[in-house]
Amino acid sequence: MSPEYDLIVIGAGPAGYVGAIHAARLGMKTAVVESDRVGGVCLNWGCIPTKTILHCAEVYELALAGKGSRADCGIRGEAIRFDFAAVMDQSRRAADRLARGIEGLFRTHKIDLIAGRARLAGPQTVQAAVAGAGEPQAFHARNILLASGARARLLPGLSADGQRILTSREALALREVPRSLLVVGAGAVGLEFAYAFACYGCKVTVVEIEPQILPDADKDLAIELERALMRRGVTFLTASICRDIEVHERGVRATVAPSPSAAGADDAAPPKIVEAEKILVAVGVLPNSEDLGLEALGLELNRGFVKVGADFQTACETVWAAGDLIGPPLLAHAASAEAIAAVEAMAGRRRFSPDRRAIPLCVYCQPEAASVGWTEKKARAEGLDIGVAKIQFLANGKAVATGLTDGFVKVLFDKATRALLGCHIVGHGATELINTAALALVAGLKVDDFARSVFAHPTRSELFGDLAREIV
């Protein structure tokens, strides 16, 4: 049977819809099979709605900045208050608008959207259980791209109920701010919710099994961000684990004890009881690799994640995979880049492959945090002869003018070649600034190139030029 499509994509998240649109632009007849809403977790229950909530929390925080505060905007009122239900409605409107935009792009590029749950029925066959169609239907394609993503992982013995036990998905459906919240996991997701709810008056406690928040981040960045969030009322219990979690009618109760792997755990303080109205579990994800028919085609898995080669091709030459389904870095922008690379490889172009060292990691609380490239710890462990330089936001005119002076820019460079190796930023606008450093890494720029650049004044980007001129 001749293929009906050049490409069938399973999943319409950041890997799926971006890969499908890119394929259509290359002239491929493309279909996407999706069992839920287009946009995936990121657009509907992750990146986009959380950024709406974080933006609203920041605006509310700035409105409350009192007289004498660095960030005092001169806003005065008898009783400035927030409407959390309105915040959540705004987050849903943002997600809905973008979802409609993706559906419009599918129509523009003549991409067929098949609403159903898909599985592989052969190297070039996808079987989709389409609602109201009776028996599953078979669709054929020259190539198949797996982009089914991942879902939030829960702690053993817990299941999300939307009332007391939450993952990020249930947290984004709340209509009221909890009085208190226990967050398990101090990665990007846990910290963003901790900041937002703390801004709205919630008592937040964050438990992290590793010795620092953002365990894989640069240590200086993690310390600076933790201090900033503590000033906003967030309590951190690092090198700790939650155990004996109990759910009762008024909330949850957990025993927080030192992590067995933490240095000095045997001599640490005794376990403590933490009680909260709700618990938010943010300890990573599980890949959506079940019931996809992978085993019959000999596709290999690693802890449930699909193994791929350099061009994102699986062990079956007609099947490719991208995004969270294949494992870290578990970022939407990485997923999109991987899907584009996979599509170009299957089209025989192979002109693009994402440079993993130049993929930024961003945390969108305030102050924001962003990293790209080597961390100082990893660079020194690899024996690199590095230079390290740092400049505070307090030295920047735009930061002082706005009163948003928390944080710093830190760069790592090769002492011999002067090449930029890494950049770590804490501060307002960090998630925008980091793209400059990422571009510099891809382009192989040196710190001297930053020194020669003329940055607009006043902007936070000037921090790069000022720091580079200190180095040279």
Structure described in brief:
This protein is of the alpha/beta class.
Walk me through the structure.
By secondary structure, the chain is α/β, with parallel strands linked by helices. It has 3 domains: 5-53 and 86-152 and 286-354, FAD/NAD(P)-binding domain (3-Layer(bba) Sandwich); 165-283, FAD/NAD(P)-binding domain; 357-471, Enolase-like, domain 1 (2-Layer Sandwich), CATH 3.30.390. 31% of the residues lie in helices and 26% in strands. It is built from 13 helices and 23 strands. The strands form 6 sheets. It has a 5-stranded mixed beta barrel with strand order 1-2-3-4-5. A 5-stranded parallel beta sheet has the order 7-14-8-9-10. The protein has a 5-stranded antiparallel beta sheet with strand order 19-20-23-22-21, sandwiched between helices. Helix 1 runs parallel beside helix 8 and helix 3 (47-64) runs antiparallel to helix 4. The radius of gyration is 24 Å and the shape is globular.
Structural topology:
Layout (H helix, E strand, L loop, with lengths): L4 E6 L3 H12 L4 E5 L5 H6 L1 H18 L19 H25 L3 E11 L2 E6 L6 E10 L3 E3 L12 E2 L1 H4 L8 E5 L3 H12 L3 E5 L11 H13 L3 E3 L2 E9 L2 E8 L13 E5 L1 E4 L3 E3 L13 E2 L2 E2 L12 E3 L10 H15 L14 E3 L4 E6 L2 H6 L4 E7 L4 H6 L5 E7 L5 E8 L2 H14 L3 H6 L9 H10 L1
Parallel strand pairs: 1-2, 1-5, 2-3, 5-18, 7-14, 8-9, 8-14, 9-10
Antiparallel strand pairs: 3-4, 4-5, 6-15, 11-12, 12-13, 16-17, 19-20, 20-23, 21-22, 22-23
Helix pairs in contact: 1-8, 3-4, 3-6
